[in-house]
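Appendix B. One record, verbatim.
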Amino acid sequence: MEYKKILTYFADMKDPRIERTKRHLMDDILFISIAAVLSGVESWDEMEKYGKTKLPWLETLLALPNGIPSHDTFNRFFAALDPNEFEDRFLKWVKSLCESTEGEIISIDGKTIRGSRGQGCKTATHIVSAWADKNELILGQVKVEDKSNEITAIPRLLDALLLKGSIVTIDAMGCQKAIAKQIVKKQADYVLSVKDNQQELLEDIKDSYSILQANDYYEYVDYDHGRIETRKCSILTDLSLVFCSTKWPELRSLVKMERERYFKATGKIESETQYYISTLCDARLIEKCIRKHWGIENKVHWILDVAFNEDMSRKRDGNAAQNFSSLNRIAINLLRKSELKIGIKSRRKICGWDNDYLLKILKN
């Protein structure tokens, strides 16, 4: 049955429950959970209510030996489920959806689930995700204790991903020699943002631009949302003024990105300049990679907050927040494949209303 195909990627996970307490099949719990999240469910209570409301339909698809699991059962199952196992199966499923990584721009960035911070806890669950722009898929995710630990999470995520022929973009937190080496080792290119955490490198890049002539230049103008944005990307391939250039694997260019935004309603002008390092030497391609990097903000983080209310989530038991985050990302990947020209939030509503549409989404 095609609508159950996705479950085959999770079938060999270790069930975290004690044998004598298993009243519901793991496949049934997973199917109801994915279907419920696709349909707009955001809590364990809602998940139980969804299952009971859809019971006559679900009985035609699932075994349900003891009916619909309670909200406590859903909570306990996902709180106890090993999130690394769940994410590993998620990665295998996503790889089956990817057409190719050749020429793909893969953006890596982190997001904090603010509501997961419990009383007396200093930190909330922070998830680092990888987004493939061309395939429009979340490729994977790794949990870290807080944003400052992204440096340790990014290598784990890179290690799990198929990167050959792709271009990896990461913000300043991931501008590390070991991370650049790992990307090159996996036969991919990189565009890494350079800020104050690499002070010496940043100063060398600024000095280079004050003395040397750019080797390539590209300008992009965007007219949208009541503003005019001009992006000027220039690159230097002369690395002679960068003291540590040989320590950055396959480093071929320094990048200067100048942005100016003119707001038509107010006449206000905003400008900023950012610097990058890259294995690429094409200003037009690099500008595109930098611009596409924000796809992870607009098409993942923003969607999770607006269409899935993830930031408002109060799931704090065990691994519940991390595993529910994986369910949300499974839903986003499935909903992205829909041919309907409407927003993700509206697609979720239709999944809740129309069982046939939901099954069609699950077959993607």
